[in-house]
Amino acid sequence: MKNKQQGFTLIELMIVVAIVAILSSFAVPAYQNYTKKATLAEFPKAASAIKLAVEVCAHESSADSDSFKTNCISNNNGVPAQFTLNKMQIVAAAGSSSGAVDIRVKATSDKGPIKTGETYVMTASYQAEGITWDSKCYKDAGMSQANTEYCP
């Protein structure tokens, strides 16, 4: 009786390796985008305590738009002071526009795909109906380069 050899030929194995290489060339960049988006999703969660405190401050102090900007910032009226949490610096500061408070979450050191200085800003605008929130991401601490690609 003659034994027949079983297995894959070298050509078949090379084809499989080539297919895997082509598929991974698409998968790796997509995975990197996913991890950056997932890491940036931590920024709004980190700011949730200050966000709630700003809303309570606006409600309890019955502030108008001008006093809201100065009364409902860090270290005032129950709004927590600036703090650092898991390589993120979080602070509520007077916003650039009238009647606005900015909550800034800034990476204090590299955090996975997030680089030092990348900043997430939640802007609270005081209006008669209540507070409205807007958010933006920046690639630098000076907030001059918008990052719309990964912003949650």
TrEMBL record:
GO cellular component: type IV pilus
Signal peptide annotation: none
Gene Ontology biological process terms from the UniProt entry: type IV pilus-dependent motility
Recorded superkingdom: Bacteria
Pfam families in UniProt: N_methyl
UniProt keywords, alphabetically: Membrane, Methylation, Transmembrane, Transmembrane helix
Bilayer-spanning residue ranges: 7-28
Cross-referenced PROSITE patterns: PROKAR_NTER_METHYL (PS00409)
Family to which the UniProt record says this protein belongs: Belongs to the N-Me-Phe pilin family.
Name of this protein: Type IV pilin subunit protein
